[in-house]
Amino acid sequence: MKDKNFPPLKNDNLLRAARGEDVDRIPVWVMRQAGRYLPEFQEVRKEHDFFTICRTPELACEVTMQPLRRFDLDASIIFSDILVIPQALGMTVEMLPGKGPHFPEPLNEPKDLEKLTPEGAVNRLNYVGDAITMMRHKLEGKVPLIGFTGAPWTLMGYMIEGGGSKTMSKAKAWLEKYPEDTEKLLNLLTDCIVDYFEMQVKAGAQLLQVFESSAEYLTKEQFLFLSIPYLRSIREKLQDRLIKQSIPPVPMTIFAKGAGHSLAEQASIGYDIISLDWTVDPIKAREAVGPNITLQGNLDPQDLYKTPEEIKSLTRDMVNKFGKRRYIANLGHGITPQTPIESMDAFVNEVHKTL
Ligand code: 1CP
């Protein structure tokens, strides 16, 4: 935004690819590029609790910057987590070392919804906006800054399971037992996400990604019923609000892991970019979404355990399949803590050699 006096953008390849314009080189970034595979991230984590890093703009900016110092990336993503929304709604979320997120008091039954505090929730997330604004200045226009959220179904899953789950069985039981309360909760989360995204754009986010990471637990029918309508509504409501305030729209990405069965449907809800997990064939994806959507993805994160030569060859094959227009290179899911640093260099630099 003009009044914040942000430095001009020097590398806008990500935004060009999002708009379907020509690029100087194929833009590449990596989901979870700031994270546990980086020793310097581990150092910061030794000193600070996970959510303290998220809530302290200086620390959030420092870890957001870490991968950009090492690798020739074309985007940064603000350091945070999807679970800051349940926290802002009044739930306690802890990050247990080696185990991941834990909710001591998950949602067990519909009356627990009364404990949620949607009024003013976005104000309790102002620290994310502060980190975004600070990061835009610290980036000095090097690359664009991505903001993000979890999608309603994915957040609902964590709020009911109380943490990660291999089956989402509690959340799926809830869907069957309480269809009306499911709708109520998904709508509540949708409204909160729209407020949150509006705040992120005003703070300086230049692209927004919605993580529907738990789409993989839904059947196609459930995905079309429990995910697509809310994703559509997030985008429509946000764009309406931005237009009313004469704020230019920002490109939006949907990453629905495990929803390769519904690419045409994902392409129909107004998002600029569809991010693919590694199970989806790029050529089939392009056929399904048509020419006017940008695709992002989708190297298998496990491929980064291979030798640099193998990684380069797989990366070239991937880029050749996607083609060079309307394409953003990425992994098919987050980078894992076990990934060797050299693998990131092999991946990122090989993408850039292809154009
Ligand atoms: O660099 C970046 O990409 C920004 C940081 C980022 C993002 C985009 C983090 C930091 N988390 C996320 C999103 C996120 N968080 C998702 C969506 C993306 C995905 O599917 O991977 C999900 C599902 C979460 C929830 C979460 N937070 C998990 C998964 C739990 C599970 O088993 O289901 C975990 C392990 C976390 C913790 C977390 N978030 C981020 C980091 C670096 C970590 C590791 C925590 C630590 O340092 O102890």
Features:
355 residues; alpha/beta; TIM Barrel; seven-stranded parallel sheet; two-stranded antiparallel sheet; 46% helix; globular; binds coproporphyrinogen I
Largest sheet: 7 strands, parallel
Q: Which CATH top level class fits?
A: Alpha Beta
Span between N and C termini? 32 Å
The secondary structure category is alpha/beta
Bound molecules: coproporphyrinogen I
Strand content: 5-15%
* Nearest-integer average pLDDT: 97
List low-pLDDT spans: none
CATH architecture: Alpha-Beta Barrel
User: Number of helical runs?
Assistant: 15
Alpha-carbon Rg, integer: 19 Å
Please give the number of β-strands: 9
Helix content: 40-55%
Tell me, briefly, the overall form. Answer: globular
**Strand neighbour order, sheet with most strands:** 1-4-5-6-7-8-9
CATH topology: TIM Barrel
Structural summary, described in words:
The chain is of the alpha/beta class and 355 residues long. The protein has a single domain, classed as Alpha-Beta Barrel (TIM Barrel). 46% of the residues lie in helices and 11% in strands. It has helices at residues 13-19, 39-47, 50-55, 57-70, 84-88, 126-139, 152-161, 169-177, 179-203, 220-226, 228-244, 263-267, 282-289, 308-322, 341-353, and strands at residues 76-77, 94-96, 100-102, 145-150, 207-212, 252-256, 273-275, 294-299, 327-331. The strands form two sheets. Strands 1-4-5-6-7-8-9 form a seven-stranded parallel β-sheet, with helices on both faces. α12 links the parallel β6 (252-256) and β7. The protein is globular, with a radius of gyration of 19 Å. The two termini are 32 Å apart. The structure holds coproporphyrinogen I. Coproporphyrinogen I is lined by residues 31-36, 45, 50, 77, 79, 81-83, 95, 97, 100-101, 148, 164, 211, 213, 334.
